[in-house]
Design brief:
alpha+beta, six-stranded antiparallel β-sheet, 13 strands
């Protein structure tokens, strides 16, 4: 359906996700500790939210703001880690030379350049890194870095409001992609693909994008995985990519990939508020 929308000219790309659920039998903090062991990530975070917890092993930096400087680091393109150094290198090379994956990232990099351009000084928005290969415990990704310098009077809160939600987890154009996501995804995302971090009174702020993230409540966990859909996407390949992204959570739950789809769990907490 998304590919139909692309060919009709509505969008160039949309990030489509689906939800997995499992009975974990432990609290969210204990699961988060397991996750840090089997699937560490640079922008991990945990938050206790009343009766539920958010546990995130996110590899993606949404915004890093220091004084008047801002960077965002969108991720697109995924391959699993290889079982040997040679296979790992070949999979990484395959990702780096994939025209489809690079095009996905270039679209989103350009979208985020435009987002930053709304509040940054003219000529200050740059892309110091484009499609850099980065490796994590279970997967490897292509990552860009987009940077800029605030116009006078712009605050970190202004910047967050201008950029949220992140382009890598919506699509391009952002608003129409979100409308299509809302139409097609059967459950609300809740905290997933939001952001977790801090806005400092000292003008030092950092936020992740809540991917590789679970909401835990009452011995159950719900987490989403997704993929960017473009005109030449192969549905089976995109679905398999989402399973690769679930590998860290499966390892934390001591489950093999063959366990997917996971056992049903009760309806997740209402996180719309």
């Amino acid at each position: 359906k998304i590919i139909d929308y692309i060919w009709q000219g509505d969008i160039y790309q949309a990030n489509l996700t689906h939800r997995l659920a499992a009975k974990i039998g432990i609290d969210g903090w204990s699961l988060f500790q397991r996750l840090l062991t089997v699937s560490p990530a640079p922008f991990s975070g945990f938050m206790q939210c009343g009766g539920f917890q958010i546990a995130s092993s996110s590899p993606e930096q949404f915004l890093r703001m220091s004084g008047d400087c801002v960077i965002t680091r969108p991720i697109k393109g995924t391959r699993p880690r290889g079982t040997s150094p040679d296979l790992d290198a070949r999979l990484g090379y395959e990702l780096q030379t994939s025209a489809k994956d690079r095009a996905e990232l270039v679209m989103i990099t350009d979208l985020l350049r435009n987002d930053l351009g709304r509040f940054c000084e003219y000529g200050s928005v740059n892309v110091p890194d484009l499609a850099k290969l980065e490796r994590f415990a279970q997967v490897q990704h292509l990552v860009s870095t987009v940077s800029g310098r605030f116009r006078p009077g712009v605050t970190h809160l202004h910047a967050l409001a201008s950029c949220f939600p992140g382009g890598s987890i919506t699509g391009a154009p952002k608003i129409r992609a979100m409308e299509i996501i809302d139409e097609l995804e059967p459950v609300v995302r809740g905290a997933y693909t939001g952001c977790l971090g801090y806005l400092g009174f000292n003008r030092e702020s950092q936020l992740n994008i809540l991917i590789r993230t679970a909401v835990c409540c009452g011995g159950n966990a719900w987490f989403h995985v997704g993929a960017g859909i473009v005109a030449d996407s192969n549905p089976v390949a995109e679905y398999n990519e989402t399973l690769n992204k679930a590998a860290g959570w499966l390892a934390a739950l001591n489950l093999p990939t063959s366990a997917l789809p996971l056992c049903p769990a009760p309806e997740s907490p209402n996180l719309r508020t």
